[in-house]
Every structure is written in structure tokens, then in C-alpha cells.
Amino acid sequence: MAWDLTVVIPLIISVLTAVGFSSLLSQWASGAKDRQIARAAALDALRKVEEERWFGSGSDSTTFKAAIRELETSMLLACVPAAPVALYVALASAAHGATRSDYEEDPQPDGGTLSRSLSDYVKRTARIILRYIWSPRGLHRIPDRIKLRYVKYKAKRMEGETGRFIAYELSKVGASR
């Protein structure tokens, strides 16, 4: 029985292609599960920071710092760019410092108060981070960079004690430029 090369070569190529394609497909499927786990951890870490940034009778700086460390780690694993995370950490830390200062001056059952502007800047940055978590390679990156620059610009120009908290936190993370 003679082998016809016009039949054998395409058969070998199709078998090798099928094996390679199934290997790539299985790697992609397992990677999708890992990405889902990383995204879930990032969302949970962001939720924890949002809860802990309000200083009050039931919170302290130690749990806030632990939440920040967990957030930074989970954002790294979820492939969120460092710039929005650094800005969010700086603004959330400034908010935590402002509420802690207010609480220490006048302890209230609900915790310290926060200026509406700073609260708005933290929420805007958190929304941008959420968009990065859900679509890390989306077309939103350029508009989000513009929004982040705007938030940083406005936050750096806040006055009073809140402005000092923001300036200090931005200088710690190197986001003061």
C-alpha cells in the first residue's frame, strides 16, 4: 500500500493544528478563570477600603492600612495600572486622615465627617478603577487618563486641612506631579 503525499501531509498538518489549537484553547479557558478570581479579589479589596476609609468608633488605622495593602496586591494581580491605584490610595488615605482628625476633635457615633469634594474625588477614582477591573484593555483608557488628571488637579487645589492631607498623601505615593 503506497502512501499518497498529497493526502498524508495535509492530514498530519490538520492533526498538529488541532492539537495546538486545543492546547491554546485550554490555556485561554484556564486563564479566564484566573482572571475572574483576580477581578473578584480586586472588587472585594476595593469594597474593604471604601468601608475602612471612614474613621469612626468601630475602625482604626491598622485595619485601614491592611486594607490598602490588600487592595494594592489584588490590583496588581488583576492587571490594573498603577497610576489610578496610586491616586485612589492617596485620596482614600487623605479621606481617612480627614475623618480621623474630625473624629478626634469631636467624637460622634457615626464617625468623622468628610468634605463633599474629597468624597466625590475618591468616588470618581474608584469608578475609574472599577472600569479598569472589568475591561483592562478597553478603549476607555484615554478618557480615563484625562479624568484622573482632572481629579488630581482639582484635589491638589483643595484648601485647608483637607488640602494638607491630600498634598501629604500624594507626595508619599509619588503622585504629586
Content of β-strand: under 5%
Oligomeric status: single chain
Determine Rg (CA atoms, Å): 24 Å
Number of helices: 6
Count of the domains: 1
Name the helicity range: over 70%
Order of helices and strands: HHHHHH
Characterize the structure shown.
By secondary structure, the protein is mostly helical. The protein has one domain (8-173). It has 6 helices and no strands. It has helices at residues 5-52, 61-77, 82-105, 116-134, 141-156, 160-173. Helix 1 (5-52) runs antiparallel to helix 2 (61-77), helix 3 packs antiparallel against helix 4 (116-134) and helix 3 (82-105) packs antiparallel against helix 6. The longest helix has 48 residues, at 5-52. The protein is elongated. The mean pLDDT is 79.
